[in-house]
Amino acid sequence: MRELILVRHAKSDWPSGVEDKERTLSDRGVRDCQNAARYFIGLEELNNFEVHVSAAARTVQTWREVSKFFAEQPNVVMSEEIYEASLDGLSTYLSSQSAKRLIFVGHNPSLALLGERLTGESIGKFPTLSIWHLQVPKQWAFGSATTVNRLVPREDPNLTDSD
Q: 7 in helix, strand or coil?
């Protein structure tokens, strides 16, 4: 069984004069990362995942803010290929990976479209810091994945602070 967790970067700032690739997270984006960390901490054998992070500043910062709460760190690969990847580009990138447990931290629309292609589901929105956890029986075949979980941590009462 293979697993793929798609993570859209947290809410970013849009400062004028800053290139898209260099945009960082907003204050809300940084705060939301703690809720997302709770989901990942609850996974068994998190350190057995290989994490592929788009080289954009906001995705790098998202993973750094989420993973700082982990006792053990999974292997992280920075990827220029994930930044601005089309659906076909991201699909090709996925099929070239040998790891069976992957986390992709990237951007829309390609992340949501990849999840839709793998599951055959149509999800509509995939807001910032959405997490879509998939299981795939063998190869990364389109239409073969099942959804383990799909959530937006800031909207999930099980992952947010109750005070």
A: strand
- Residue 98 forms part of a structural domain: yes
Amino acid at 39: Y
Residue 77 in any domain: the answer is yes
Q: Map tokens 């690969």 to a residue.
A: 77
pLDDT, tens digit, 9 for 90 and up, residues 65-112: 999 999 989 999 999 999 999 999 999 999 999 999 999 999 999 999
Structural domain total, the chain: 1
pLDDT 10s digits, 70-82:
998 999 999 999 9
Q: Which domain holds residue 31?
A: 2-11+23-124
Write out the H or E segment, with its range, that includes residue 146. Answer: strand 146-151
Pairing verdict, β 75-79 and 50-54:
parallel
Q: What is the DSSP letter of 21?
A: G
| 135 domain residue, yes or no | no
Distance CA 120, CA 90 (A): 16
pLDDT recorded at residue 44: 82
For range 30-38, the mean pLDDT? 94
Residue 149 CB neighbour total at 10 angstroms: 13
Q: Say which CATH number the domain at 46 has.
A: 3.40.50.1240
Determine, yes or no, domain membership for 106.
yes
CA separation for the pair 97, 115 (Å, rounded): 16
